[in-house]
């Protein structure tokens, strides 16, 4: 990859791994190619341009392979990309399907019913001009029990929700966990961890599928502990949230959960930097990103590498950053 391509990268010259499948090593490149090599000789078997030619896409995540399909997304949420996930034939490199994670220009028509549904959560015409974000830059997981491919999506573009969509929409499917039929790429369910995200709270941390006994009943679940500081246990088949609990001391981007609405987060209005015109020290910030986690089925314990940090953000240059961090009332934490 030419060094000049680095201007299209947000966060470093990264490659988070390769996949091995039936004598082939498959990986992505920073300039958007998906390549399969003969594992014995290193010679190319196939190579495809996976990212669109327009806009500033890159591939930093590891592909996942299951049942002869290669699943891969892309990075670029800090620029102007429109997120998606692809499936390719592992033998030939032929693209089998693509699922967009945010809707494009409605005048061009929606690719599927999921995009039509998502478009209702974008309120301000013209959102598609900045791409919308929601890239699938890591966290792809295949579940053989349900035959679903599950993945997390990144932040919206631009970061501030009001600049992105002044109408105050939730902006699906940014900062979400999404499940698709692995064969067809058809939408099955989603859970949006951070509606109206303004704080780079990508939901692209690893997903772990497991069988748990909860309240005396066996549950097939997917678990995640993303940037926002909340540990989720979700029914893998339906997307129904079983529990959502902080794994950090407190969080100030939300005030609680609407449990009657599938644990939808209740956003803290004071943290809406686009509406208040003031800066905000977001807590937590990037608590758990792409780093691997581990689950022990014998003990039921999940091990998560974390950090507890804060970061000051403003909606535009010159906005005032106050002293919110020092005035947090820990007793009111969710």
Short synopsis of the structure:
The protein contains three helices and 24 strands. With 334 residues, it is mainly beta.
Write the layout of secondary structure elements.
Layout: E1 19-21, E2 24-28, E3 33-38, E4 44-49, E5 64-66, E6 69-72, E7 84-89, E8 95-100, H1 113-119, E9 132-133, E10 141-143, E11 148-152, E12 156-157, H2 161-164, E13 176-181, E14 187-192, E15 207-214, E16 217-224, E17 230-235, E18 241-246, E19 254-258, E20 264-267, H3 273-276, E21 280-282, E22 294-296, E23 301-303, E24 311-313
Antiparallel strand pairs: 1-2, 2-3, 3-4, 5-6, 6-7, 7-8, 9-12, 10-11, 11-13, 13-14, 15-16, 16-17, 17-18, 19-20, 21-24, 22-23
Explain what you see.
This protein has 334 residues and is mostly beta strands. Helices cover 4% and strands 34% of the residues. The chain is built from three helices and 24 strands. It has helices spanning 113-119, 161-164, 273-276, and strands spanning 19-21, 24-28, 33-38, 44-49, 64-66, 69-72, 84-89, 95-100, 132-133, 141-143, 148-152, 156-157, 176-181, 187-192, 207-214, 217-224, 230-235, 241-246, 254-258, 264-267, 280-282, 294-296, 301-303, 311-313. The strands form eight sheets. The chain has a four-stranded antiparallel sheet, with no helix packed on it. A four-stranded antiparallel sheet has the order 5-6-7-8, with no helix packed on it. A hairpin with a 2-residue loop joins strand 15 (207-214) and strand 16 (217-224). The radius of gyration is 20 Å and the shape is globular. The N and C termini lie far apart (46 Å). The model is unreliable at 322-334 (pLDDT under 50).
């Amino acid at each position: 990859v030419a060094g000049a391509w680095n201007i299209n990268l947000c966060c470093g010259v990264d490659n988070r791994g390769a996949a091995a499948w039936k004598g082939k090593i498959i990986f992505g490149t920073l300039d958007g190619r998906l390549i399969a090599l003969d594992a014995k000789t290193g010679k190319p078997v196939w190579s495809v341009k996976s990212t669109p030619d327009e806009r500033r896409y890159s591939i930093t995540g590891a592909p996942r392979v299951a049942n002869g399909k290669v699943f891969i997304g892309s990075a670029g949420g800090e620029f102007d990309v429109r997120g998606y996930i692809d499936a390719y034939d592992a033998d030939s490199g032929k693209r089998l399907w693509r699922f967009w994670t945010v809707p494009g220009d409605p005048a061009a028509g929606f690719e599927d019913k999921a995009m039509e549904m998502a478009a209702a959560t974008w309120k301000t015409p013209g959102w598609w001009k900045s791409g919308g974000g929601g890239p699938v830059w890591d966290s792809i997981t295949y579940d053989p029990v349900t035959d679903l491919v599950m993945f997390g999506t990144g932040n919206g573009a631009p970061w501030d929700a009001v600049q992105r969509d002044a109408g105050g929409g939730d902006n699906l499917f940014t900062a979400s966990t999404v499940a698709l039929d692995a064969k067809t790429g058809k939408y099955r369910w989603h859970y949006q961890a951070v509606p109206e995200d303004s704080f780079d709270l990508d939901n692209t941390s690893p997903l772990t599928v497991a069988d748990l006994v909860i309240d005396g009943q066996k549950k097939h679940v997917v678990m995640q502990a993303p940037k926002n500081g909340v540990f989720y246990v979700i029914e893998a088949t339906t997307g129904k949230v079983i529990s959502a609990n902080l794994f950090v001391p407190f969080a100030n981007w939300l005030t609680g959960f609407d449990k009657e609405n599938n644990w939808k987060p209740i956003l803290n209005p004071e943290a809406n930097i686009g509406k208040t015109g003031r800066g905000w020290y977001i807590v937590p910030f990037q608590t758990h990103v792409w780093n691997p986690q581990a689950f022990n089925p014998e003990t039921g314990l999940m091990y998560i590498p974390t950090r507890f940090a804060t970061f000051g953000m403003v909606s535009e240059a010159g906005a005032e950053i106050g002293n919110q961090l020092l005035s947090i009332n820990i007793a009111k934490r969710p």
